[in-house]
Amino acid sequence: MSGAALCVNGVTWRPRKKAPLILHPTSFTVATGRVLGVVGPNGAGKSTLLRLLYRFQAPSSGTIEIDGANLWTMPARLAAQNVAAVLQEQAAAFGLSVREIVALGRSPHLTGLAKPGPNDRLIVDQMLDLLDLTHLAHRDFGTLSGGERQRVMVARALTQQPKVLVLDEPTNHLDIRHQLEVLALIKQLDLTIVVSLHDLNMAANICDEILMLEDGHPRGFGAPDDLLTEALVSNTFRVDARRERLAPSDAHHLSFHLPTI
Ligand SMILES: Nc1ncnc2c1ncn2[C@@H]1O[C@H](COP(=O)(O)OP(=O)(O)OP(=O)(O)O)[C@@H](O)[C@H]1O
């Protein structure tokens, strides 16, 4: 797998013509293999932006390019070879096993009515192993816990071998161990990644750049240490944010308190 440059130029989104904008003009570039974190309070527009990136809803204006190719004018199959997504809410896939769900990730790579070949099966096995799912391969997806389902969806997205991986709150439902594993995986993947996260310390830890959204407006873009200042975090989230350095790593750590009146 290898990443691609993602270039977002002035995208906006509104649910219908003449409705107020939910996402105001937003532009940024993610270089090949970098991890962009999208953060902001509830209702800031994080999922709305992500939906434009995995071709679920079209931008009302602006363009999204992957290595210079317009994501929204390329054929759907090509788009699916370029971008995979892991979403917060997964439709229950009744009757399908874990292995069958993960194997669905190969669909954009199969031509016509072609059946999966040995290479496709090998990729599925590798991703089941990577996400610690081999022992669950034959279980009905509908019987899994929330965290197990989340790992299946990450495995399916990786089986798609995309260039850009979009993850909406990927650590929801995961216990601490599996959170750390999914975050370590995100850090180590040779892909371009856009991930929305509520935990700002987690975002600072795994992201190369952060985009801060508030009320559908981009409020800042930059390296975590530069962007996540006490002032920006306090103003955007309406809290008192303190930033200190942790020993012995010397990494920044944010803590939050309700403002005293
Ligand atoms: N189809 C729609 N029609 C009208 N409003 C919408 C639609 N989709 C989203 N919104 C509104 O747009 C705003 C942004 O929603 P979005 O889900 O993108 O926020 P978010 O930053 O992902 O929030 P959260 O952290 O709570 O998941 C919210 O106020 C939401 O109610």
What is the gist of this entry?
This protein is α/β, with parallel strands linked by helices and 261 residues long. It is built from nine helices and twelve strands. Adenosine-5'-triphosphate binds next to helix 1.
Topology:
Elements: E1 6-13, E2 23-30, E3 35-39, H1 46-53, E4 61-66, E5 69-70, H2 76-82, E6 83-86, H3 98-103, H4 118-130, H5 146-159, E7 164-168, H6 176-188, E8 192-196, H7 200-206, E9 209-214, E10 217-222, H8 224-227, H9 230-237, E11 240-245, E12 252-257
Parallel strand pairs: 3-8, 3-9, 6-7, 7-8
Antiparallel strand pairs: 1-2, 1-4, 4-5, 9-10, 11-12
Helix pairs in contact: 4-5
Adenosine-5'-triphosphate binds at residues 15, 22, 40, 42-48.
What report would you give on this structure?
The protein has a single domain, classed as Rossmann fold, CATH 3.40.50. It is built from nine helices and twelve strands. It has helices spanning 46-53, 76-82, 98-103, 118-130, 146-159, 176-188, 200-206, 224-227, 230-237, and strands spanning 6-13, 23-30, 35-39, 61-66, 69-70, 83-86, 164-168, 192-196, 209-214, 217-222, 240-245, 252-257. The chain has a six-stranded mixed β-sheet with strand order 6-7-8-3-9-10, with helices on both faces. The chain has a four-stranded antiparallel β-sheet with strand order 2-1-4-5, covered by helices on one side. Strands 11-12 form a two-stranded antiparallel ribbon. A hairpin with a 2-residue loop joins strand 4 (61-66) and strand 5. Helix 4 (118-130) runs antiparallel to helix 5 (146-159). The radius of gyration is 19 Å and the shape is globular. The mean pLDDT is 92. Bound molecules: adenosine-5'-triphosphate. Adenosine-5'-triphosphate (ATP) is lined by residues 15, 22, 40, 42-48.
